[in-house]
From TrEMBL:
GO CC aspect terms: COPII-coated ER to Golgi transport vesicle; endoplasmic reticulum membrane; endoplasmic reticulum-Golgi intermediate compartment; Golgi membrane
Keyword entries, A-Z: Disulfide bond, Glycoprotein, Golgi apparatus, Lectin, Membrane, Metal-binding, Signal, Transmembrane, Transmembrane helix
Signal sequence annotation: 1-18
Stored Pfam families: Lectin_leg-like
Protein's name in the database: L-type lectin-like domain-containing protein
Naturally occurring in which organism (per UniProt): Onychostoma macrolepis
TM helices/strands, residue ranges: 302-324
Span of domain L-type lectin-like: 26-262
Amino acid sequence: MISGSSLILFAAFSVSLCDDGHEMEEFLKREYSLSKPYQGIGVSGSSHWELMGDALVTTDYVRLTPDHQSKQGAVWSRIPCHLRDWELQVHFKVHGQGKKNLNGDGLAVWYTQERMQKGPVFGNRDFFTGLGVFVDTYPNEEKLLEAQRKRYTPRTQRIFPYVLAMVGNGSISYDHERDGRPTELGGCSAMVRNLKHDSFLFIRYVRRRLTIMLDIDGQQEWRDCLDVPGVRLPQGYYFGASAVTGDLSDNHDLISMKLYQLTVLRSKQEDEEQQEVLVPSVDNMELLRPLTDAEGMSSVTVFFSVLFSMLGVFLLLVVGLVLYGHWSESRRKRFY
Ligand SMILES: [Ca+2]
């Protein structure tokens, strides 16, 4: 695993080793990156990035929301990304006047089919298609259970702020009241608010493996947050970031989002499999499991079995009725 500082130093080009020992080359892709001096952002047509809602740009940051109630803002790439393997480094800052747990709601980083759509998921639409990584700063579920005078068992408690990943296929809703627990792919606690030093989120997607790391302790070291294999994300989606405040608020600032292309050697079979991904899915996750060929066949088989059984029963009934008709006829004839 390479460290955050080395990534920053070798911003334009470097070679690193993947977890499984594969050598990878990294290239900064400027067209998918957002960094100072944020030239032309917000001016229609003159930048690769577009602002929406309450988001605004200064010389030092893109502020998704200010520290005021009921704000939502986002920034979206205009260009769909067709890279297969990539890593995204997000330099962000969450800060505000509110004391712990009296702030909210958090920010999200997106790689989705949809873009520029307002909604309830950290300012973005629900039922999204693709990947969402949430830096959730308000524990809705905990507050809900407290209100119902129910207690968490230690096994289920999550310490907030909490970083969480979710993959959506367009038909799955994000459960805001439960902080996305039902659809959580994985996550970790992350004390990201009101830090004196820089904070970074790192999302790497290589050979269907999704890795999320954080650098928030001011040590210039990445720490693991999530590592999930078998995440199938189509190509051609948009990168974006959004944030929302409610009754409670924070400044949600983006300093940069830098996208690196990773060059990975693939077998022919991997190459072919990659091209088949049309809808996001996650292996071994029931909500999002892809249909295999065998399962596709078996559902067809089930359909025809049911159809033929019904036809069979119908045929038996008809034959039975005809036979009964003949039998009662011949019985009547015997009496005359
Ligand atoms: Ca929350």
